[in-house]
Each structure stands twice: as structure tokens, then as C-alpha cells.
Amino acid sequence: MIMDKPNGGPAFPLDSGWLADSLPISHFGMTLRDYFAAKAIPVVWGSQPDAMDGPAAAEISAMVAYKIADAMLAERAK
User: Fold this and answer.
1) Does the global pTM surpass 0.90?
2) 11 with 2: CB under 8 angstroms?
3) Is residue 57 assigned to a domain?
4) From CA 74, how far away is CA 78, in angstroms rounded?
């Protein structure tokens, strides 16, 4: 996992006081960066030309989605 970029912290953390089977648990889930990127994917994927298909399309879509997520985190930090 690449950790050199701000990730916004956990997107849906559970408080460590949450109990499951009488044991305290803590789960941080996905990062806010991952959540923002996942939300951007439908828009990114829908904007691609029909001619763009295959693994290259998926790689480009992921790259663009994370660029959007990084921009959202930067704006949020202002």
C-alpha cells in the first residue's frame, strides 16, 4: 500500500468502544481517499470513449479517480 500521499484517515471508522461478542473492537475500514476514488469511478468510466477498452482503460480510470480523490482531499484541507 502506498502511504506517501494524505489519505484523509478512515472513511467509516468504528469506535473502539463498539462491542462484538463482549470484546472491544476497532476497525478503520477504507481510507477517505479510497472512498472518494470509488465514488469518482462511475463518472470517470462513463466519460471514456467506447474505443477505450481492456486493461488500459481500467488502469487509466483508476489513475484519474485517484487524481480526483487527491484533489478533493487537498480542497478539504484548505
Assistant:
1) no
2) no
3) yes
4) 7
Instruction: Kindly tell me the sign of the dihedral angle through the C-alpha atoms of 43, 47, 50, 55.
Output: negative
Tens-digit pLDDT string for the chain (78 aa): 445 677 877 777 666 655 555 555 556 678 899 999 999 998 888 776 665 677 778 888 889 999 999 999 999 999
Cell 477505450 sits on residue:
52
Domain tally for the chain?
1
Domain that holds residue 61: 31-77
DSSP one-letter string for 12-32: S-B-TT-EETTEE--B--SBH
**CA atoms of 45 and 16, how far apart (whole Å):** 37
**DSSP secondary structure letter of residue 33:** H
What is residue 10's three-state secondary structure? strand
